[in-house]
Design goal:
14 strands; Rossmann fold; six-stranded parallel β-sheet; 2 domains
């Protein structure tokens, strides 16, 4: 562990390991590490509900050290969670009633971390995600001079309502009911912001405005950011049309989007697109039934857990974002912009982004609209290149990594 005693310390509490090629949360956490490391010695605390035991400091690229801590609840406490879902106001009495809320369970990480940093100047503690708020408040008590900030990323209550709709669409009614009940819990908790936090950050400007209308002060917009390829790859030469969808496939909005592609968009493409075309669907953790269905469609190439998405973007002309659910801003959309690929998206797929339809992307709400937009770009390579270039410039100006 390399330590510079002259530098102030920043602590990032994250639900996931920061990675520049990981999920949306992993990318946002990685952007925090990248920014903080410019002026601070960075310690990352990964709050993990599945960890078997707490670990001491270990290496993490861009940070001085990473710590893992166990969080969650014991099996008998599931009755408490059930009571909280049935009677949402209980969440205001105790966070133990809140579905998905993290708290320490006999964790040893805090004493180890405090002992390591007790003689250092800890200037910032960043809590990434609302459900980790208690961990940050407990840690700032050990470092009272630190500035405590909460990065909510999105409005958890709105996101969970959106996820409930996705679960309903997928026929997962129990998951939908639990998600909707938990949305009420988080809606109540959001009325108690900001608590002891000096600042609250959120990804989408519209969500910042929503919090401001509720009377929450000290809230600012922090856009999602992605690494930008340098230089961005050229569009593939004319030939077969190549389309790309990227997303973790055990996440309900992505699963809903893939089902939409399979059931409705692919048949429309068969009717509208002249010539050969292929759709690559890249995503980890796909259910077995979905994998079998994807591999049965002759126009689809399924890539399971690609170690690097760059080659997939290089061979594609158009990235598809047929999302109807989820929260915050969509990193898959920003990522496609960064790779210099034309994007066809729903309004939800570009929520929170300063993207202009017909300039930075093509808007498509219905399945027929998706096929029509794809066909229009396939038959007009100059327009395809203009849209791709505009999206890439938008990303570089607003969403490129620090």
């Amino acid at each position: 562990m390399s330590i510079d005693l002259a530098r102030p310390v920043a602590i990032l509490i994250s639900p996931v390991l920061p990675e520049p090629t990981g999920s949306g949360r992993a990318l946002r956490a990685w952007a925090w590490v990248t920014e903080l490391a410019r002026e601070h010695e960075v310690h990352v605390v990964v709050a993990d509900v599945t960890a078997a035991a707490d670990e001491g400091p270990s290496a993490l690229a861009g940070a001085t050290a990473m710590w893992r801590c166990r969080t969650g609840f014991e099996v008998p406490r599931r009755l408490v969670k059930g009571a909280g879902l049935a009677l949402a106001p209980l969440s205001l009495l105790s966070r133990s009633f809140v579905l998905g809320w993290h708290y320490l369970t006999r964790s040893a990480f805090a004493p180890k971390l405090v002992s390591t940093l007790k003689s250092r100047q800890v200037s910032r503690i960043i809590v990434f995600r609302h459900y980790l708020a208690d961990l940050g408040e407990s840690l700032v008590a050990q470092f009272p001079g630190a500035r405590l900030e909460l990065d909510m990323d999105d409005l958890e209550s709105q996101t969970r309502v959106s996820l409930a709709r996705a679960y309903l669409d997928l026929g997962k009614y129990g998951d939908a009911a639990a998600m909707l009940a938990s949305a009420v819990q988080y809606k109540l908790l959001e009325t108690r912001l900001p608590g002891s936090f000096a600042q609250i950050l959120i990804a989408a400007e519209e969500d910042r405005l929503a919090l401001a209308r509720r009377g929450v002060r000290k809230v600012a917009c922090r856009p999602n950011r992605v690494p930008s390829p340098r230089p961005a790859p050229d569009l593939p030469p004319s030939g077969d049309l190549r389309l790309l969808f990227v997303g973790t496939l055990n996440y309900a909005p992505n699963l809903q989007a893939v089902h939409r592609l399979l059931r409705s968009v692919v048949p429309e493409l068969r009717r509208q697109v002249d010539g050969k075309w292929r759709l690559t669907i890249a995503g980890r953790q796909a259910p077995l039934r979905l994998v079998e269905e994807l591999r049965s469609v002759p126009e689809i190439d399924f890539v399971d857990d690609a170690p690097d998405l760059a080659p997939l973007y290089r061979q594609a002309q158009i990235a598809l974002v047929p999302l109807r659910a989820g929260g915050g801003t969509k990193l898959k959309t920003i990522e496609a912009f960064a790779h210099g690929r034309a994007v066809v998206s729903t309004r939800h797929g570009v929520r929170g982004l300063a993207a202009v339809p017909d300039r930075d992307f093509l808007l498509a709400e219905s399945d027929r609209d998706f096929a029509t937009a794809i066909t229009a770009l396939a038959h007009d390579r100059a327009r395809l290149a203009r849209v791709a270039q505009a999206g890439m410039e938008l990303c570089r100006d607003n969403y490129a990594a620090y």
